[in-house]
Design a protein that fits this description.
Layout lengths: L1 H11 L6 H15 L8 H14 L5 H10 L3 H12 L10 H20 L4 E7 L5 H14 L7 E8 L2 H9 L1 E2 L9 H7 E4 L2 E4 L1 H4 L2 E5 L5 H5 L4 E6 L8 H14 E9 L13 E5 L2 E5 L3
Parallel strand pairs: 1-2, 1-7, 2-6, 7-8
Antiparallel strand pairs: 3-5, 4-5, 8-10, 9-10
The structure holds S-adenosylmethionine (SAM).
């Protein structure tokens, strides 16, 4: 009874964000990483940042805003901010129909194209979260090339804003929930069971290199090696149109002529760009840079 009572008091003390504090923080977050938090998701900042305020002993969201803008500890706190505001949901073999098109149409076409020109394959997984997407791509490459994979120069560049998810991606250990749509034979072939978890095998890990990138930062995007395929699934959904245009145009510039862009199934380039040719397959639209 007494613990219930004290919980009620604690809940009563939950910090509320004012409209002005919300607007300041929303604009700041947008400037920093392009994630746009709509007015009807004010509760999200209140809930997710409330704990940061408590940890830092700050009295209100205005103090937190000023801390982020002016305090010396800001670099570390920016990382924490990115961790709490990003949504990192992902899984292996996410959206199987789209991946089937990737394997049977996109990858076969690209591999055919570069067989004659040095067997060099570059794929960019932008917004890779905890690594399931780039490792899935690596497994599909292994499935297609089998032993011949050793004769190719392959790199999957996998980036995210959050250092925390990248750390977990590099570890490469997963629970069975994230493998729920992965074919059984793939699990057997490319994972090592370890203490109740599944560890990605070295031959898959070898193809992926992880690094921190903020998609808001044009200079960083320009430094990514040019690719034949860009994956950016379930990321631009968090951006407004201006940020979507900026990021998609960076992908266009990064792609080699004839390259492909793959976005999430609920995302669209409508009103964003006409530079790509959409190719319609059952269960997936893939975007091609002609040339
Ligand atoms: C929902 S996850 C998608 C993961 C994976 N692509 C998939 O479809 O399963 C979105 C990821 O985008 C990342 N992200 C969001 N804004 C970003 C930015 N400005 N720069 C880099 N990554 C960002 C988040 O940290 C998060 O891990």
């Amino acid at each position: 009874m007494s613990s219930l009572f004290s919980k009620t008091i604690a809940l009563g003390k939950e910090l509320k964000i004012t409209d002005q504090e919300f607007a300041n923080l929303r604009d700041f977050i947008y400037e920093q990483c392009g994630i746009y938090i709509a007015d009807n998701r004010k509760y999200l900042l209140e809930n997710r940042l409330g704990n940061r305020l408590k940890k830092l002993n700050l009295r209100n969201f205005d103090e937190y805003y000023n801390y982020l803008r002016f305090d010396a500890g800001k670099v570390g706190e920016m990382k924490k901010l990115f961790e709490v505001i990003t949504t990192n949901e992902t899984s292996f073999y996410r959206n199987p129909p789209q991946l089937q098109v990737f394997q049977e149409k996109v990858l076969t076409d690209v591999l055919e194209g570069c067989r004659a020109s040095g067997r060099k394959l570059r794929i960019w997984s932008a917004g890779c979260s905890t690594g399931e997407e780039p490792y899935t791509i690596a497994m599909i490459i292994h499935e297609l090339l089998r032993a011949d994979v050793a004769n190719w120069d392959i790199r999957i560049t996998a980036n995210d804003l959050s250092d925390r998810v990248l750390e977990s991606a590099r570890k490469g250990e997963y629970n069975d929930y994230t493998l729920r749509t992965t074919p059984k034979e793939i699990v057997q072939r490319y994972f090592e069971p370890e203490n109740g978890l599944y560890a990605v095998k070295p031959e898959v890990k070898r193809l992926v290199s992880f690094g921190q990138i903020n998609l808001r930062d044009r200079a960083q995007l320009k430094r990514v090696e040019r690719s034949q395929i860009v994956f950016c699934r379930n990321v631009i959904i968090y951006f407004d149109d201006a940020m979507k245009k900026q990021v998609i145009s960076a992908f266009y510039d990064n792609l080699l002529p004839g390259g492909y862009l793959i976005i999430g199934h609920s995302e669209s380039l409508h009103n964003i760009t006409r530079a790509f040719k959409p190719i319609h397959f059952p269960g997936a639209i893939i975007y091609k840079k002609e040339g």
